[in-house]
Design brief:
The protein has helices at residues 2-13, 16-23, 27-41, 57-84, 101-114, 127-136, 198-210, 224-232, 279-302, 313-318; strands at residues 46-49, 52-55, 89-95, 118-124, 141-145, 153-162, 164-168, 189-191, 218-220, 237-240, 251-255, 262-270. It is an alpha/beta fold and 319 residues long. The chain has three domains: 2-84, Orthogonal Bundle (Arc Repressor Mutant, subunit A); 89-160 and 265-296, Periplasmic binding protein-like II (D-Maltodextrin-Binding Protein, domain 2, 3-Layer(aba) Sandwich); 164-260, 3-Layer(aba) Sandwich (D-Maltodextrin-Binding Protein, domain 2). The relative contact order is 0.13.
Length: 319
């Protein structure tokens, strides 16, 4: 490729001295490089005489093709740099099953804006399964619930999200502006299966006990609809960030006094040189989206029923 670039410069100048000056090199090495190229191609590219230098028939035929080859080389180098920067290809990303549609939509939009030609393959995967797939190469990046063993991982910026309590709408606790964990004494707790995120599962139970809430029984629900059905039927209470639960007429969502339960989420990807170049930027974008959505939800929670506001239909039914 270097010899082809030298050939094009000489063809433009039709003068070895001027071409060498333009290239910032001495004339003898330039002449030798062109001779080597001619030998390799098996044809003289220039007619050299005392009257000057001009393209041979072979050189004239080669010139247009050389311009195309050099243009393709530039394109390949650009593609390689963009791929190395994580702007091309496919990024396999895991997200927790409880990720809301609003977060997913905002995250995909942010990724598309940052890298329009990068395809993001989102997969709904629990934290435990994400860790396994990240270790085996099945995922490039994931959003995990802490605490996790990050020995073989790199972690992006973390986001802390407060949890509230999901109650049957007819529960007396649903009328309180805030609920203390100790107020839940005697209730069963509906929680995601421990296998989904063992560290966070155990952390929740430890915090509940420390605050005076020892569940009579811990029931497990992987599906949000099943969780809602259990709460509605009076089979327990559950923890949730709020946006999804507040849309449901069958249940009530209330913040917890003192915000004792805070889930921390961050992007995670394999440590080492084989990491996807877009993994860190995905983790940054996810943190920004989660923080923005959580702030918006918190504002919505604080102004859900301002004084004099028209009550929602289900508030009339269950009031």
């Amino acid at each position: 490729m270097r010899h082809l670039r030298l050939f094009v410069t000489v063809a433009d100048e039709l003068h070895f001295s001027r071409a060498a000056e333009r290239l910032g090199m001495a004339q003898p090495p330039l002449s030798q490089a062109i001779r080597r190229l001619e030998k390799e191609l098996g044809a003289e590219l220039f007619d050299r005489s005392q009257r000057g230098v001009r393209l041979s028939a072979a050189g004239a035929a080669l010139l247009d093709e050389t311009h195309e080859i050099l243009a393709q080389e530039t394109k390949l180098r650009t593609l390689a740099r963009r791929a190395a920067d994580g702007a091309l290809g496919t990024l396999r990303a895991g997200v927790p099953p409880d990720t809301t549609a609003a977060v997913l939509s905002a995250l995909l939009s942010a990724c598309a804006e940052h890298a329009p030609e990068l395809s993001v393959d989102l997969q709904e995967v629990t934290t435990a399964e994400q860790l396994r797939l990240l270790a085996s190469g099945g995922l490039d990046v994931g959003l995990v619930h802490h605490p996790v063993d990050a020995t073989e991982l790199r972690l992006g910026p973390g986001v802390s999200l407060d949890l509230g309590i999901v109650l049957p709408r007819t529960s007396p606790l649903a009328r309180l502006p805030e609920v203390m964990l100790s107020d839940l004494s005697g209730h069963d707790l509906i929680l995601f299966p421990r296998a989904h995120a063992p560290g966070w599962h155990d952390r929740i139970l430890d915090l509940c006990r420390a605050e005076g809430f020892v569940p009579g029984r811990v029931r497990h629900a992987s599906n949000f609809e099943f969780l809602l059905a259990l709460v509605t039927a009076g089979h327990g209470v559950a923890f949730d960030r709020g946006p999804a639960a507040r849309k449901e007429p069958r249940v009530a969502w209330s913040p917890l006094a003192g915000r004792p339960l805070t889930v921390r989420i961050s992007g995670a990807w394999p440590a080492g040189r084989g990491a996807h170049p877009a993994a860190f930027r995905f983790a940054e974008l996810a943190a920004e989206v989660l923080a923005r959505q959580h702030t918006a939800a918190a504002r919505g929670n604080s102004t859900a029923h301002p004084p004099g506001d028209t009550p929602r239909p289900w508030s009339v039914v269950y009031g």
